[in-house]
Batch of 4 targets.
Target 1
Amino acid sequence: MNFDFNDEQREIKSTAREFLASRFPPERVRELAESRTYDEGLWAEICELGWPGIAIAERHGGQGLGVVELVILEEELGYACAPTPFLGNAYGGALIEEAGSDEQRASWLPGIASGGARGAAEVDADPEPLVVDAEGASILALAEGEGAKLVDPGDARLERLDLIDTTRACFRVAAEDGEPLPGDAFPAANRAAVALSAELVGVAQRALDMAVDYAKEREQFGRPIGAYQAVSHRLAEMLWDVEEARSLTYYAGWCADAEPDSLPLAASMAKARASDAAASVTHNALQTFGGIGFTWEHDLHFLLKRARVAGRMLGAPRAHRERVAALAGL
Amino acid sequence: MDLTLDQQEEGFRDELRAWLERNHPGPAPRGGDQAQFEFEREWQRRLHADGWAGVAWPTEYGGRGATLVEQAIFGEELARAKAPRPANVLGLVMGGPVVIAHGSNEQKERFLEPILSAEEIWCQGFSEPESGSDLASLKTRAVRDDGGWRISGQKVWTTFAHEAKWCMLVARSDAEVPKHKGLTYFLLDMEQDEIDVRPLRQITGEAEFNELFIEGAHVPDENVVGGIGNGWMVAITTLMNERAGLGASAALGLSNTLDELIELARERGVAGDPIVRDRVARLKIATEGLRLGAMRALTATMKVGTPGPEGSISKLQWSSTNQALTELAVEVGGTEALGSGSLWAYRFLRSRANSIEGGTSDVLKNIVAERVLGLPKLR
Ligand SMILES: Cc1cc2nc3c(=O)[nH]c(=O)nc-3n(C[C@H](O)[C@H](O)[C@H](O)COP(=O)(O)OP(=O)(O)OC[C@H]3O[C@@H](n4cnc5c(N)ncnc54)[C@H](O)[C@@H]3O)c2cc1C
């Protein structure tokens, strides 16, 4: 029994933390968020690191690592609040790898794994689905009944949604035709939900770190505000939120790799908890900052908005809890 | 990352399971009375006879020398089997480990075996009427007497004091030095006329805890643990053992109770109610969160000797989940579940203490804020 990363995984994590901190400092995140763009140069660097293919099999051009490694990267991308097309590409890749035919895999996975010919996928978002990272993608994986189909972006009409989170590009997509993926789309959706949970854990951890730092520094009534229990207990509860969501998310990642039968329940528990944790931790962080936290000028709102929108994607917490209740035997 | 058990751990689990199948005594009688206590004592004797009482203790002291993972498995399997608790819980999880860590060879020789066999029951005399969370402010005095000490003062909430032979007692042996420094850890023989044990009735109707009125009770020098003036340090070990004992087995206990709640919801015809479903799912998620956090903490403890931040929140997670679970049960179960003889009513009432006993939730949040998040102290 060992519930921790191995040396290689720790290496991936620290490299990612360092790389993302240097490439996505808060000023850069702000620029990208305000201009609603991804930085293609930075994406090219991410591709050089091999991240887009981290969980794709080696025979399809990926690194052949697992969902645990994907979770590690996603958590760091969330922590950096990095605007990139990573998630849409990863989900598109998972759908094609899990549910695609040999031919479909051979056509699309190498490009998705290298990041050179990106994929994008439709996610359930209540009430209407949306497609993340559709613009600039080479192939779209859209929902079709219970399954999924592949659509050439040239055959689809894209309309960018104007959501509060501008660090991620989400689209309404209409397309009549397309080529069905023959397999079951459910495992890929679960994997993507776990990856997104990790991103939400990262977002929450960043907001917590910012709030804790501020609580040590900011003084009122002659002492740091973190000395007041109304503030420090709120921060302790935020840590509880983050750590519980993290435990459930890492576990779900492990299930995806090692115990797939447990994945549906594990993924739903993780997504429900991580969505709620990110929403409440970013809210409580804002409260910790007081007025400055409510300004556009402060960076916190990018995290708060990302938490809210990502929390709705790939199943809102309530929908996942309904699944948990059913799987728990109710 | 590997959350499966290795061969040795599986062997340990299978052996224990087989043993439990043969030896499980059935459910303990309820009521917190003598009959329940004797049942639990008999159960501990049976555990001890086959070497399952001090699973965490080193083999040289009569324990099984189990690894941390095996200890977690032990807690989980006993919870899974719905086995009764052993009578001498406080001796097994606190008293014994303290004697092992800080005691002299003579103390180990004298005290450990009777703890395991439940021959001598232990209680914990820390809290006082004016010193609860602020334990270090305690006032019970220890005064030098030839060949030992005379203890005078009042203790409160002392669980099992009415059954106990020994009390882990912290008293002030030096009033001149700052409050943490003047404390000493004594093993007090409860069979003395100078100690008056008065039961305190709890909101469940049981009287598991007591008040102790101590007037000049005697403790010989050889029953000081860890040296004069080191009582605070020794007491902290006790509390850490108490908190570390939770985790995995607590999660399994919750999981059992949650299954019963699901059954109750079905019987009451509310299994389809979306609000009930949502609340049950939250409880399921919280229970799994506790279990997995405990596993992470266990891994960290094996690697670096101390649990990480996830370990410090286990008790908070457990108490809040157990309280929320029993609240939902008495809501779903209707007036029947609120009947005074009902098991759900008992669980609901008993769990009110979970956020107080073993350190209140507020105090635990202070600890998380100061030690894990590094926030400034209030003072
Ligand atoms: C069922 C049960 C069994 C017990 N068994 C034993 C036993 O065997 N041996 C033993 O020694 N003790 C035992 N206790 C006592 C237990 O450890 C104390 O009740 C506990 O430490 C709290 O102390 P108190 O009751 O004096 O409350 P107080 O410390 O007076 O606390 C009252 C309230 O103030 C809050 N508070 C206090 N200090 C702070 C602070 N610094 N910051 C924020 N809030 C604060 C608390 O959280 C609480 O809400 C038991 C208690 C229970 C309920």
Target 2
Amino acid sequence: MNRNEIRDVLLEIIADIDEEADFAALDDHKPLRDQLDLDSMDFLDIVMELRKRYKLQIPEDEYPELATLSSCVNYLEPKLRHI
Amino acid sequence: MSDYQLIIIGAGLSGLAAGIRAARFGKKTLIVDQHYRPGGLNSYYKFQGHLLETGLHAITNFAPPTRKKAPLNLLFRQLQLSRRDFPVREQLGSEIAFPAGSLHFANDPDLLQAEVERLFPACGEAFHQLRRAIAAHDPFASAPWRSARSFVASYLKEPLLENMLFLPLMLYGNAEENDMALSQFVIMFRAVFEEGLFRPEADMRAFLDLLVDQYEGFGGTIRYRAEVEKILIKNDRAYGIRLADGSSYTAEALLSTAGLPETIRISGWQTPSATYSGKMSFTETISLLPNAVRSSIRQDRTLIFYSSSDQFSYRRPQTLQDSSWGVICFPDNFEGIPHKEFFPIRVTNPASYPLWRALDSETYAQEKTACRRAAVQASERYTGPYGQAIVHQDSFTPLTIERFTRKAEGAVYGSPIKIPDGKTPWSNLFIAGTDQGYLGIVGSMLSGISIVNRHLLD
Ligand SMILES: Cc1cc2nc3c(=O)[nH]c(=O)nc-3n(C[C@H](O)[C@H](O)[C@H](O)COP(=O)(O)OP(=O)(O)OC[C@H]3O[C@@H](n4cnc5c(N)ncnc54)[C@H](O)[C@@H]3O)c2cc1C
């Protein structure tokens, strides 16, 4: 997957988790949790979905890499390149 | 290879919520319940052709779908359910009635603030301070037990107001006698007074169907009339269950929502079970009335929490039933619920499990009838007269609760001592639901979810 595809997948996962999510005003460089007003339990679901879909194990100490949409894409790009 | 990755004991609200989480992330999951339908304490039954709900008065923690941080919405997201599939109705308004006066509250916390200022002019500012302190308190941080009674008294210094505030919060979510843990008080204060009360537009059956469908849709299996007789244990691990019919299933991990005394019994856990038996249980009288009598009784209240004395102590009574305090529920008095041919009134009073237990079956039946009459009579002071108009009537006692849900001694809120981390002496057997610590419908579901998230998704 390329960067755009990864970004789309992330938005799809978030939309699945939160039907009230508003993407129109989303800034790729600001923390996702604050912008979407999500709980840490929702955040865990992003990790769980990535694991379910791509068998991707993300260790807990790397969760900070998933803070913003662009940091997520940076982090996932090498891991999802061959998918 | 085990038969399942996870076996959950109990298809009550905590077990169903836990099951949805586990199945959603691909765990091969089995839920077993001894009853023939789901719901546990919060179920329903057919009576003279009417569907009656067994637990639900009102669900706490009301929030509109847009308030994302609210527990109710977090719960729906975690279960991947849409608030759109679950239309709800807000309470009309409720009341706390004591001899000295009444406080009215609804899903707008400013109303309660104004009511406190009206009835206790000297306490308005103190009550405001108390609300601020409650908002600032983190009830989920691990901390030693603290008395909610002394906490509230330190702000209000007005025993009558304190009693009035404690009555609904204890009645709807306190397993201890006399006092309440501060953390539990904070959870309940927010759930009832700051957020408010509602019910499903349809009935509890529809909500349970929604949960079971979601669980099965994610691939989970559920079995009713499946009583767990033994949790199978070898060394420091649990490896399965044996049912009363002799069949057994193995699993990599187990989650029990059956309550501590029952879990202790079926696991052979070496710990004194009595410590974990709650003393607070209740009787409930459900009366069905023809629509025509509506005009002569109170129509603008959803719940009336009442005490016939300004002194109020929350403890197991010395008699079968104590009609001097309790809660009256009008299940149809929510915004926009259409009137049907009949409407119910439910009256819940504290009751003594050991006294009911001691009766022979003939006396049990007689006492049940006498207690219904006493409950109706006590409630008529607040509702207006309806005793003569009752078409159908049913009631349950602490023994009924124990029989259908296996909650030891009919203790609706379970053990006075909770296990917040859900751990047991066995590394792969966990506890969720009432005895993990969160109470009520929303609470027990969040309990199931959080224990699965914490221990069972790896
Ligand atoms: C009269 C009444 C009114 C209530 N009103 C409200 C209300 O208005 N609002 C609110 O929010 N909450 C209310 N509650 C509380 C709410 O119902 C409970 O807090 C919640 O349902 C608890 O869910 P749980 O899953 O923890 O336990 P349970 O519902 O007790 O689930 C445990 C399940 O385990 C099963 N089980 C036990 N032992 C075994 C075994 N050995 N083998 C197999 N299965 C077993 C039981 O059959 C049961 O289904 C009320 C409760 C009562 C009784």
Target 3
Amino acid sequence: MSVLVYTENWDGEFKKLSFELVSYASKVAEMLNTTTAVLSLGNVENDELMKLGKYGAQKIINVRGDVFAVLDNQLFSTAIADISQKENASVVILSNNNTGKALAPRLSVRLKAGIASGVSRLPISIDPFVVYKRAYSGNAYAHVRIKTDIKILTLAQNSFEITVHECNATIENQEITLDPLLVKTRVNDVQKQTGKVLLTDADVVVSGGRGMKSPDNWGPLVELADLLGAATACSRPVSDEGWREHEEHTGQTGKIIAPNLYIAIGISGATQHLAGVSASKYIVAINTDKDAPIFEAAQYGIVGDAMKILPRLVEAVKEMKSK
Amino acid sequence: MKILVCISNVPDTTTKVRFVENNKKLDTTGIQWVINPWDELSLTRALELKDDPASGVTSVTVAHVGLAAAEPTIRKALAIGADDALRINAEPSDAFYVAFQLAEVIRTNSFDIILCGIESSDHNGSSTGGMLAELLDYPSVSAISSLQIRDGQVGITREIDGGKETLTLPVPFVGIVQKGIAKEPRIAAMRGIMMARSKPVKITEPVSVEAFTEVLEYEMPEPRAACKLIDPEDPKQLISLLQNEAKVI
Ligand SMILES: Cc1cc2nc3c(=O)[nH]c(=O)nc-3n(C[C@H](O)[C@H](O)[C@H](O)COP(=O)(O)OP(=O)(O)OC[C@H]3O[C@@H](n4cnc5c(N)ncnc54)[C@H](O)[C@@H]3O)c2cc1C
């Protein structure tokens, strides 16, 4: 019995999401009185792999291979299932990001393991195995019992605190023989966002809605985000109008995020918008309408015109930084 | 080429959900049921492809696992333009149960492209599509934001963390769809609503299989503390609170 975590790498590197996963997994392993193994597929150097040890993994299973350069759901889920079986894993943990969402359900069928997706807390109980998860797009939470012997959990990003341990991990290099014919996905082109803080990774997000009035008014919002090291986001009508990129759309049908701070400017706070941002630790609302529902979700608010308030906030942050 | 769109029947996205029977069941009084938003977009894209003769798409079928109460949602899909529907007459108890039933009807009906939404807005499971692909042993692509077909060749764009990839894939496959695949969901016109009445809905009984999970109870999110209002003339105060009280910047 053990807990197995799968983390992807981004051009040979891990990020905060990987460390959250390992921190979470090692706490689950503690509850089960067992050990944590992390699986990495693809080409990652040893010192990068050792980083995972700091967050509580005892074993780092390293499967190298150029085949892992492109995500093929069949290939990856076969590999993860194979290692899970070898490790006799009773709980398998992945991220609830696009990769985790692509792989966990395939693994579920292979391992005959029930899934609870998007968990943000430790299991409520181990026997029976009950977890707490988001339901009805954040309007409720469900206690879900997983009835199968093996359990799969996908962890919501930014929802679990990273804990650093004394590192006593070992790297175990393993090989898997995979049928290359399995790979059906042929990637022709990759476009990566560069130089920007990724919305799903960001600790602080500055977001604009229809109250920003025009795509030409975004300058001070972007400046505020840059000063705070924040990612920029927007409501759905803003991306539908083409004022901002689709990648920035947050909410029920867009990205679901959980930053430490979400600043909503000129956003009314429709249920569908809140569905994507209500897990933020703090929400700030800036809106001319004191009755806008966003104020019910926010801890801090300013009732006023964003066009006047944004430049003042920019000045205030500059002043704070100069101190 | 034949497309199947799997649809989930969910409460309207503005619903303030409440629970009954010791918080074990959703209180369905007054709820408006709709096609899950991503499924509606998948259906729209499938119909756009069918409208374009160069795509080679000849039919669009919808499939739903659910009881007779979901008929209006199925009729809505037919009114929007689907050619026919399959309903597996069972309570959709969890993602695995649903995927298992869908796999069964797909094996007997054969489709080239099967579309599922990236999640269902009720249980937010993000599981059915991937499970279905594995049960059928088909390839799958997740987080699809664009789907094109030319001369029998499928071109897909998928979202990855911090970017996009364009790729090709042989049929049959399961496509798991997010926003972007179609701009606005198609709305049923009067003529469509009339025609939907006579379109075939084939009802089959479920095969026996155990669900992997069960919901024991629901709870409401913790209420948030009241909002502190800050003088619009003094936004410095906000920055100071964020720095010293909330400690988030
Ligand atoms: C199935 C479905 C899914 C949806 N999914 C999403 C989703 O994922 N994400 C999403 O965001 N929406 C989604 N929506 C749309 C949602 O219902 C709302 O329409 C949308 O969130 C409103 O965007 P908004 O707040 O930018 O605009 P509005 O609702 O128009 O609000 C603009 C706000 O700006 C304020 N304002 C105006 N001028 C100023 C000013 N000068 N300074 C400050 N404030 C000002 C106004 O008081 C108002 O509160 C969905 C809808 C449906 C039906």
Target 4
Amino acid sequence: MTTTAAPAPERARRLAATRNGGQMVAEYWEDLFTARERGKQIVWYNGGAINPIFQAAGLAWCHGEAFAARLAAQQLEGPAQLAGAEYGYNAELCSYSRTHLGCAVLTVQGDEGANTGVVGAHDQAELAARLPAPDFFVNNYAGCSTGQQWDEISYRVFDKEVPIFNISHPFLWGNRPDAGYLKGEEWESASHYVRDQLVDLIAWLEKRTGNPFDWDMLRESMTYIKRAAELRREGLELCKSTPAPATFWDWISAIAPINFLPGNQELVDYFQSVRDEIQHRLDNGISGVENERYRVYFDGIMNWNKLGFLSRKFAEHGVAVVAGRYITNAFWQEPQLIDTEDPLLGMAQHYLLCPTNHGTRTLDYLTLRDCEEYGVDGIVFHSTRTCRAFTGPQRLLARSAQNTLGIPSIFFEGDVADASFYKDEILESRLTAMLEAIDVKRAQAS
Amino acid sequence: MSSGSAALEALRAAARDPRSYIRAWRSTHPGQKVLGVLPMNFPRELAHAAGVLPVIVPDDQEPVTEGRAFLPEFYCGYTRNLADQAATGRLSDYDALFVADHCIQLLGATDVARELDPARPVFLGQLISSLNEPWAVRKTAEMMSELRSEVERLAGVTIEDTALAASIRAFNRDRALLREVFDARRSGDSAFSPVELQDIVAAAQVMDPDEHRELLAAVLRDREATARDERIRVHLSGHLCHAPRRELLEVIEEAGAVVVDDDLWTGRRYLQASVPEAIPPMEAIAQWYADRNVAMPCPTRVQHDVDWDEWLLDSVHRSGAEAVIHLMPKFCEPHMLYYPELRRALDTAGVPQLLVETEHEGIPLETFRTRLEALVERAHRNRPAYA
Ligand code: SF4
Ligand code: SF4
């Protein structure tokens, strides 16, 4: 006779409000898949959230990383990655780029693609990716050099037939003593440089689409986005409470809406509902993790194949992942910079504030600040195998957290969009060891 | 030892042991600074004109030990080696480090160096990498003048235009002489082995240009041109920032191939473009940066009308190479991204090719030998039967 062990009770209490976001995102993609039929021109872009400009230019937009993340989160990345591998992309190449380039290869090769403008129609079932072919590329990648090179290669995969616009972003290295987070001459000059390029992008889009740019729409959508971002920040602030009413994983679920959905009232309502649910939990003593025992900071880009799994795994150990670089320091995270009457400068600044576009000194400042403010016991570094931009400074950050705040950390290997790099036993054993060390430290302190 | 052999030995010593060269230079230039330059496009002329010795920091081929604690193992071998040099104090020969290029892995390693020795200046003067933009020329000029000011600050001197023009001439002369050697190889001369040529170029990346040129001239006076034999002619492509292992170059020739051209960092990539001498020196340096990517395309740059794949095909036609060996440093992202374009172009043109992923340590030489022999076989089949 076989017995089946009862599943461990679910200790992760994910927010209900983020489910509505999932629905909004699904509708967005459906809309994009039919954009061509509705006579829309389509732009493929990478990097910072430049979609408000596309919205005001009357375009439909597809964020390459978001599309790769979506495929990975739905475990549908296989066919695109296989197409990329057959084309010659090495398995150690950034898996976002290789998934997205695989889509590009399928688009170009697709039997019906050339006629219908639909990505590899024969692979639709597996891909669930009725991604329309691009009319334009716009590259808006800060921080990681791979981002700019990837779009240049997409341009070549499409035989240079799709016009491309590149925005160059200075890396915020911090050469001068006055340099720091949101300050110094380097920050000011980089902000204006990127802003000026946005003006050029708008002229370029006007010329190529034949549509006059709708400045009122840009102001309007940025007003909504600013409000949504403020609500998001309020929600993040509330999560500093102990126990945390919501976790990093809830905020991961809320990335897509803030990253690429249109700026409108629906977006504001969504973040209002997220914030309100967190407030409601605080008022009623409901925590994001049942019986929170440890508070942890997560550094690294998301492992999209494992979102639900990781959320449960940490909760099972009584670990509330309360903050992380990819959440706290990304995605319209400084809404006060946005002047809704003249939003371009604040937009440019957010593109520069990509969490991979800082030298280690600034990242160190941000990480230590967040660890202190969120009352963190330890740091988990996702050593994201194919993302060198996120992983480069991690060892220095771990060293600094230990030396400055006495906070221990662990590393586990995984990837943004390639499940094969994830090693569960490593995470499990290292996490257990770190939690035991935290227990010992607490016992000694008491 | 003949004067040519002695000169070659001096070049080899500088290439393989730059620290001793630096120390000797310091003893004859008291009070003058040594700048560590990271690949790829920092104009060393600026530092030379300020009386500074600009040394392109090489992969010193030591195994990565303490550096492991600072950069992940999936960074390219060069950057892991840099991190290791930083972690073990092997960068202490440099008074400052300058980098002008945005490869994220390179910046990661540079930041390790900065964090581990905060007292040493580490300057990023990021040159624009998207070269078709209408503002690219202006931004390049602005950055070059920032680099000039920063070098002046480091050296504590003002760089005079006349001194800069003289430095430009010195580097140009050295590059021109190197180019003669490479062009001769392309035209059928095999007087130098690939390892010798690599040492000669690697020495140029370390040494004072006049000194390097004089030594190279002495080597050339002593070395007869040698007609190439009948081995399969190959072009080596890749290794954008550091030298491939010498053993690997030796195995390539042992496996029945003869290297006739390359686009390696310690090869033609270093010497392909000169700085124009007929225009004001700061303009000339900015122009050189733009010219470099045309003279030899680099996958870290974005320039829509310049193609590494086309350049490679042209180069193969010029040299008569019968096969291409891609030397791709493991984890080098720009190379991984561009490689399928190269493969597609060569396949279409019917040029046999082999991709070799190179590791920083532990090269499986015998496996390479077998794969190289197979490539040589394939290329032989392309030769006319009566030849
Ligand atoms: S390596 Fe990371 S930061 Fe760079 S393009 Fe890929 S996912 Fe983006
Ligand atoms: S270009 Fe390639 S070899 Fe050079 S530093 Fe970057 S990853 Fe390394």
